[in-house]
Amino acid sequence: MMAPIPITIVTGFLGSGKTTLILNLIPQLPHTYKIALLKNEFGDVAIDSQLASSAAIAGVQELLNGCICCNLVGQLGDALETLLKDVGPDRIIVETSGSAFPATLAMEINRLGRETGNYVLDGVVVVIDVENWKGYEDTSYTAKMQQKYTDLIVFNKWESVDERRYDDCVDRVGDLELQIANVKSDKGRVDQSLLLGLDSALAKDGDSVNGGYSKDKPTHEHSADHETEVEVLSVNLVSEGDKPKSVNLDSLETFLLSAPKDEVYRIKAIVSASHPMASSSGDVDESAASLPGVAMYILNWAFGRWTFTYNNATLPAPIGVASSSTTAAAVSNTHEAILRMTIVLARGEASKWKSRLEKGGMIEQEGEGGFLMVSRVI
Fold first, then answer.
1. Is 30 helix (H, G, I), strand (E, B) or coil?
2. What are the C-alpha distances in Å from 191 to residues 24, 28, 333?
3. What b/e sequence results for 334-347 when a residue is b if at least 16 CB atoms lie within 10 Å of its CB, and e otherwise?
4. What pTM does this model have?
5. What is the pLDDT of residues 43-69, one digit of tens each?
6. Nearest to 375 by CA among 350, 356, 346, 349
7. Which of 230-242 are b and which e, b meaning 16 or more Cβ less than 10 Å from the residue's Cβ?
8. Cα distance between residue 326 and residue 312, in whole Å
């Protein structure tokens, strides 16, 4: 009988740097070591999974449009089994959505481990965004609970803040009155010896957390409606004709610069563009600088900063074209998606931003034409 596959949970609030931490872990491992990623995210566009699939990860499974500790928890076993059969990994990393609750997820992994003998929980890692800590700590109950049920805290994005901000962050974690190991990242990198082999406390007593756990009805110290801490918009921009079209990058950049950090938490998109757009730091993806014509890029925005990375992929078909009563009649088979975007917002902001986007001027096609569809997911 083979040894159970260790599972590492990586969680943290939206935009804290979870995917970056994982991508920086991969090069530290032997080339023969197989890492599989199970990715859970709000929205219907698997942006981070496309980034991860190009980083020597053996296999990726996605659970989209919900929270892995609530309405998607029943799909966890099937997703893990698929990775087990298709990849045969040495380790599985579960990266949760920004609103997931790690204790419940850990208990489900423990249950699956007992029933199948195929898995063992190795550790729960929480990533904290030091730079934006005060922007959400006082409003998000889930962000607090993520720290409480963890084996290692990674303080990320501390390099650009003063020591007082970092000390305040450490003090707030100390308010939980728990002995939790912590480490500073080096621009999103933590040594693999600190991330792996944590011997999770939740693997030992996770079933006693929150007073028990039931497969059929997970019990949360938070409520299953904790997803209402955020609201999510799905944005599709489609273009007519066979000739490749581009998103208007000037308008897109204006939108990114105008998004307030206390209203918009995260923006992820797959974008068709005629040239690479500079990231918020001013850097341009050199691998795409000499590409002729339109190419696909991945936009990753969090708390006012973004990257714009070339991605050799085909844009997925837009969601909602067939069901949209106002747009379906105008959109024929000759239309193709030139932007698929997920926007994660603070509670109460979705309706306002939906109206702003639909008024135009923020997300539009280069030149004339294009159909913009904005729908609320959560």
1. coil
2. 9, 8, 49
3. ebbbbbbbbbbbbe
4. 0.68
5. 555 554 555 555 567 677 766 554 444
6. 350
7. bbbbbbbbbbbee
8. 32
